[in-house]
Amino acid sequence: MPGTTGKCFVRFFPIVVLVLASTQFHTAEGGAISVLVSEKGLHFTKDVLIHEALRSILPLRLPQIEKDVKVPVVGMAQIILSDISVDEVKVGSSCVRTGDRGAMIVLMASGATANLTMSWRYSYHSWLVPLPISDSGEAAIQVKGMEVGLNLTLKGQGGSLKLSPVECGCYIKSISVKISGGSSWLYQGIVSAFQGKIKSAVEEAIPMKIEEGILRLNSALQELPKEIPVGDAAEMNVTFIDDPVLNNSSVYFELDGLFLPENHLPSVISYRSSHSRVVDSCGDAYKMIEMSLHEDVLNSASEVYFREDYLQWIVDKLPDQAMLNTSRWKYIVPQLYLQYPDDNMYLNISCSSRPLVKVRKEGITATVDLAVVINVLDANRSISVACISLVMDVSGSAHILLNNLAGTIKLRSLTASLKWSEIGNLHMSFVQTMMSMVIRTIIIPYVNLRIMKGLPLPLVHGVTLRNARISYDDLRIVICSDIAYGNQMTRYLPS
Ligand SMILES: *[C@@H]1O[C@H](CO)[C@@H](O)[C@H](O)[C@H]1NC(C)=O
Ligand SMILES: *[C@@H]1O[C@H](CO)[C@@H](O)[C@H](O)[C@H]1NC(C)=O
Ligand SMILES: *[C@@H]1O[C@H](CO)[C@@H](O)[C@H](O)[C@H]1NC(C)=O
Ligand SMILES: *[C@@H]1O[C@H](CO)[C@@H](O)[C@H](O)[C@H]1NC(C)=O
Ligand SMILES: *[C@@H]1O[C@H](CO)[C@@H](O)[C@H](O)[C@H]1NC(C)=O
Ligand SMILES: *[C@@H]1O[C@H](CO)[C@@H](O)[C@H](O)[C@H]1NC(C)=O
Ligand SMILES: *[C@@H]1O[C@H](CO)[C@@H](O)[C@H](O)[C@H]1NC(C)=O
Ligand SMILES: *[C@@H]1O[C@H](CO)[C@@H](O)[C@H](O)[C@H]1NC(C)=O
């Protein structure tokens, strides 16, 4: 019996969901980027959506309506209303709520008014009048007290967000029809015979259009890229993790947020830690969004750049160029000058391991281990003569540049030690002074030029940060910001 199978399935299904949900919970590490859209942010988003929805559905054309109307004394007349179009809608008030029955977003607009225009015509014949009579004209309709409600679910699906309309309704309190031309019987005929039909035509068409719009918005969400390029060597994984959490008039979601090498070689990130959720670090600053980046975002970036050999610099020019000539070292490292008199030198500086970035309440710090190989250019041959290892402590600060999280670093301390040498003992205090100068004047400014451009924050096209404020929490950089929206966003909305 088909009924039994159906029941069985229904009973079985929640168990499967439960099992899937619980295994997912245990293995989930969470995303390294979390985003909380606050009540204020949701209201802003709602206003943008209503504005865009109206822009895209108006003018709204309704199907033609026709009816035979009984005209007193003379008999039946066929009246046709055509070119019915909703030209303008004004929304009185609107609200948005989340968390209704689990995962629902509820949008309501009430006290809306709308203006419609249409053409009317009738033809009428009876045995009393041998020739058919017809007439036509225009009419204006005003709709008052319109309410529109929309329930949506927002879920995670395959690393994207899935938006589905659950219910959409439109209710109209009253309409008034104003006819130009025609006689009074016609006015009465149209008003009494068509008022209900026009009302229900609008009440049907608006939810239909809204659902179409939601489906288009959903496909735009599916098409959002899962990786965004950062410079030309890396990408950031912006896959959504799990379902968004809708509660307390807010929407919270997480993105993977880790850097990938451009060639997507797997398992680059060896240290994925658990990214516990933080919400509400913005404190008093009541902002539309709160975005937090776990220090792992920065560490995955440092790992990718390290593995891709980006953390390597050849220094063959210095403000004091004579430093890169063995003659300058004549009395400091006599052997060097003896072996390679008056030769040019260059430094081959590279990270010996991935820089370790820490984000704490006090700010951002990083420990960087460098190897500096001193090379001599002797008759166009490059000879490595010594290697210095440097341990640097760097402090960093983040700031927002347009929609990017930019940064600058400063050298806090540096310790140099000799790793190996083919030219005898080096004068370490001289070496340390020289290295410190090279790092401060060459390497740090170079790195700053790069990171001052920043990494793009995962925001939908057309959305820009406004009055962003950065703070540091343990393990996280927190950005509290309002958002604005420009016209590019239309690409993600129904048109
Ligand atoms: C509709 O028409 C009326 C009267 O012409 C006007 O006052 C109103 O602003 C128009 N627009 C809407 C959306 O009601
Ligand atoms: C949609 O939301 C309204 C208001 O919260 C609620 O009354 C209604 O039951 C919801 N509809 C569905 C199908 O969940
Ligand atoms: C939302 O719900 C989760 C658990 O369902 C809870 O941990 C969190 O504090 C809630 N957030 C707010 C802002 O209420
Ligand atoms: C939502 O959360 C805020 C703080 O996180 C709290 O002050 C407020 O009372 C909560 N509202 C509801 C309806 O739970
Ligand atoms: C991006 O992140 C998701 C979720 O963490 C993960 O499943 C996926 O493998 C990542 N993509 C790549 C290319 O590593
Ligand atoms: C190194 O300096 C010496 C002394 O100033 C100079 O004679 C020599 O040409 C320099 N070497 C190179 C390769 O420029
Ligand atoms: C710099 O050092 C790296 C490895 O330490 C090496 O691969 C590279 O060839 C060196 N470059 C020069 C110009 O010496
Ligand atoms: C060094 O290289 C330059 C250009 O690459 C060349 O003109 C010069 O003759 C070379 N010198 C020696 C000593 O090989």
Describe the structure in your own words.
Residues about 1-30, about 265-270 and about 490-495 have low confidence and may be disordered. The protein starts with a helix and ends in a 10-residue tail after the last strand. It has helices at about 1-25, 40-55, 185-220, 295-305, 335-340, 430-450, and strands at about 35, 60, 65-70, 75-90, 95-100, 105-125, 130-155, 160-180, 225-230, 235, 240-245, 250-255, 260, 290-295, 310-315, 345-350, 355-360, 365-380, 380-400, 405-420, 455, 465-475, 475-485. The strands form 4 sheets. Strands 2, 3, 4, 5, 6, 7 and 8 form a 7-stranded antiparallel sheet that branches. By secondary structure, the chain is of the alpha+beta class. It folds into 2 domains: about 60-225, Bactericidal permeability-increasing protein, domain 1; about 225-485, Bactericidal permeability-increasing protein, domain 2, CATH 3.15.20.
Short description:
By secondary structure, the protein is α+β, with helices and mostly antiparallel strands. The chain has helices spanning 2-27, 39-57, 184-222, 295-307, 334-339, 428-451, and strands spanning 33-37, 60-62, 65-71, 75-90, 93-100, 104-126, 129-157, 160-180, 227-230, 234-237, 240-247, 250-255, 259-261, 289-294, 312-315, 344-351, 356-360, 363-378, 381-401, 404-421, 455-456, 463-473, 476-485. The longest helix has 39 residues, at 184-222.
